[in-house]
Amino acid sequence: MFDCIVVGSGPAGATASYFLAKKGHSVLLLDKVSLPRYKPCGGGVSPVIAQWFDFDFTPVIETTVNRVEFTWKLGDPVQVSLKDIEPMWMVKRDKFDYLLVQEAQKAGAQLQDNTEVTAIAFKDNQWQVTTTNGTFNGTYLIAADGVKGKLAQWLGFKPREEFIGATLEVPCSVEKPHQAYFDFGSLKNGYIWNFPKSDGYTISGGCFKGKNQPQEIKQQLTNYAKELGLDLSQSQYSEYALSLWADHQPLHTNHALLAGESAGICDPLLGEGIRPSILTGLRAAEAIDQALGNDDQALANYSQIIQKEWGADMVLASRLAGIFYQFPKVVYKVGVKRPSAAQIMAKILCGELRYSDVTEKAMQRLKKRLIPGFGG
Ligand SMILES: Cc1cc2nc3c(=O)[nH]c(=O)nc-3n(C[C@H](O)[C@H](O)[C@H](O)COP(=O)(O)OP(=O)(O)OC[C@H]3O[C@@H](n4cnc5c(N)ncnc54)[C@H](O)[C@@H]3O)c2cc1C
Predict the structure, then answer these.
(1) What residues are in contact with ligand 1 under a 6 Å CB criterion?
(2) From CA 43, how far away is CA 89, in angstroms rounded?
(3) How far, in Å, from the CA of 191 to the mean position of ligand 1?
(4) Contact 216, 227 (CB under 8 A)
(5) In degrees rounded to 5, what are phi and psi of residue 320?
(6) Ligand 1, atom 8: nearest CA belongs to which residue?
(7) Which CATH code of 3.40.50.150, 3.30.300.30, 3.30.9.10, 2.60.120.10 fits the domain covering 163-242?
(8) N or C: lower Cβ tally within 10 Å for the chain?
(9) Is the CATH number 3.30.70.270 carried by domain 2-65+91-160+246-316?
(10) pLDDT tens for residues 103-128?
(11) Which residue's C-alpha comes closest to atom 50 of ligand 1?
């Protein structure tokens, strides 16, 4: 019998396991695949997460980014050096996620990979978790099984809308290892982000509105890479869904919490998901620690805390996304292309600014350009 069973060893589940184990609780961390595992992802991580942990991430940081280039359909470029901010980390998810898992193990969590959860049932005041490798019991359960996971549905939560994302991994020598690239306009209802690694580029695309076809995203990522003159003979293409923050929903139920993309935490404007997965994993661990200490309100408070610390900002990101993806060309000219706007976007991605700090001003500026006569 475990204090907590955590399903899914991505950033959300590994973080929750780490903090619960550090508090001295018995934790079982389950993943259906063998670790370390590949996850299609740009691998851009806000360095702000370092403040939450007491170990060093340096061994899994491939490079850091302090310069970005924005383009509109690969033309009309603007390059910006990021000032006064901690450079953004570029990671490979197999190594980054596995470091978190190994730290959780060192703290005392028990890992069982290659173990798929196939059913859950709440009996005699505990969770009975059926897997391909036996049945386990736990007082609490964290569903951190990602956007494609089934636990949220099994726990009775409303299904979340999924959006298309994809990555094209291109091994090559990287000319500017500290520069990231964002291209708008080529991919309808979304954008392309190209992040350097030590041995190549990860070119990602995400569609954050409407229904794009998978072949469209594949074609746009391939075109983009060809325009950059990259050799695609060794490249690897993968599609994966994204689950964007839609509205405030409870993330707790009887003795169970949702964390990470199972809770639909991705930023609806930019698609960032690693930092909020880690944040929800951390807060889920705190809530279950308090619940194990007989705090009856701890799980309900978790839903409130995530709404306050992440959801409120995501509502604003969603408002900006509504305008951005409807009038992308105008927004590129008025919003993205201004060097100060690029600094702001980078500061948001690095966790040094919140949408609440900038949305009102940005909306006023955009309305002035989009609605003739607005604002005089
Ligand atoms: C194309 C693309 C690019 C992206 N780029 C970025 C980026 O640059 N920066 C950023 O911040 N975010 C990015 N994201 C988002 C980010 O990848 C996700 O938000 C993040 O991985 C979510 O982490 P998680 O811990 O919730 O779930 P995941 O990382 O998806 O992990 C879930 C785990 O659960 C396991 N699992 C599932 N079902 C079961 C089961 N039944 N039993 C046992 N185990 C199970 C899976 O095997 C998996 O290991 C990107 C996403 C996409 C699709």
Answers:
(1) 7-13, 30-33, 37, 39-44, 116-117, 144-146, 149, 165-167, 204, 206, 240, 242, 260-262, 266, 271-275, 277
(2) 8
(3) 19
(4) no
(5) -65, -40
(6) 42
(7) 3.30.9.10
(8) C
(9) no
(10) 999 999 999 999 999 999 999 999 99
(11) 41
